Amino acid sequence: MSDAAYIAGDWGTSNLRLFLCAGDDRVLETASGPGAADSRGRFAAVFDGLTAAWCDKHGELSTILCGMAGSAFGWLEAPYLQCPEDVTDIASSLASPRAGVHIIPGMRCSNPLGAPDVLRGEETQLLGALTQNPALAEGRHLVCLPGTHTKWVSLLDGVVLDFLTVPTGELFRILCDHSVLVRDAATPVEHRSAEFERGLSEALRHGSVSVLHRLFQARSLRIDQQLTPEGAPSWMSGLLIGADVGGALPLFGTRGTGSGVHVVGAPALCDLYRAALARHDRRAECIAGDAASLAGLARVRAIVAGN
User: How far apart are CA 4 and CA 28, in angstroms?
Assistant: First the structure.
C-alpha cells in the first residue's frame, strides 16, 4: 500500500515547490516549477503536469497550497482574513479551484503606519512556526520573516494583531541590478562579512536619517577607494537590513534590551538579521522557513481532516 497521502505546495511569485507527503507528514518526493507570475492562465496545466506521475502511481491525492496561487492573478483568488485574527483560522476559509485542491487564504490589516497591508503565504509559515514552537502561541511576540518582501508580525496568544511589509530584498536587488550605485554587470553579488558589518554600522551611525540619504555612499565610497567593487553589494545589504531592523523595532513597541525576535526564513538570511538585531541588543530565535511552511501546510491539512 502506498505511503503517499497528500500533496503540499508553496506557489510563490517566482517559484513553485510541491511536496508529496505521507500520512505522518514525511516528504516522500519533491517537484518544482514556474512561479505564479509565469503560470497565469495555466495553473491547472502546470500543476497537473508536475503531479501526473504521482497521481498515476498513488491515485488522486488531496492538495493543500499556499502563496500566490490564491492571489488575484492566481489559480483562484482566496480571501484575506482581516486581522486581528487567530492564525489557525486560515484553515476555515480555504478556496477550492476544483475538487481536492485547497488554497490557503491570506491576511490583511491596517499596519502600524496606518496603511493597508497583506500577507500571502507567510501566514502559513507563521502557523508552522507556532506548530513547531508551541511557546510562540502564548504571550506577545514579534516575528520577522525576511525575504524579497520582509514581514514584521505582532502576535498575541497566537493571534496576528498586525504586521508590516518592507521590500528590503526587492530594493537590494533593484539597486544591484538596475542602478549605477552598487555594481556593474561584471561584479558578482556575494556575501562579504566585513563589508556587511560596515553597512550595519552605517545604518546605526545616523539612525534618525532616512536611508534614502545614504544610498549614494555605495558609489562614493568606491570612488574614494574606501570600498571595493566586490564589497559594495554586502555594504548595501548591511545598510538596508540595518535600516529595516532599526525602523521596525520601535514601530512594534518591542520589549527592553535582550528581548527576542523570532526570525523565520532561509538560514543564511536569518543569520544576517540576527547580526542586525544584535546591534540593538535583541537576540534572534531563528526558525527554518522551508520547514515552517511545510509544518503549516500539514497543520491546515490536519485541521481540514478533523485531526
Answer: 7
94 in a structural domain: yes
Residue with cell 554586502: 234
Note whether 262 and 298 are same-domain residues. Answer: no
Give the CA distances from residue 192 to residues 51, 111, 188, 227, in Å, rounded to whole numbers and listed in that order. 40, 34, 11, 12
Structure confidence by residue, pLDDT tens digits, 26-35? 999 999 999 9
- Is the pTM higher than 0.90? The answer reads yes
Total domain count, the chain: 2
Nearest of 176, 168, 161 to residue 145 by alpha carbon: 168
How far apart, in Å, are the Cα atoms of 39 and each of 71, 181, 248? 12, 33, 34
Cell 568606491 belongs to residue:
222
Q: Which of 142, 148, 147 is nearest to 163 (CA)?
A: 142
**Distance from C-alpha of 121 to C-alpha of 104, rounded to nearest angstrom:** 8
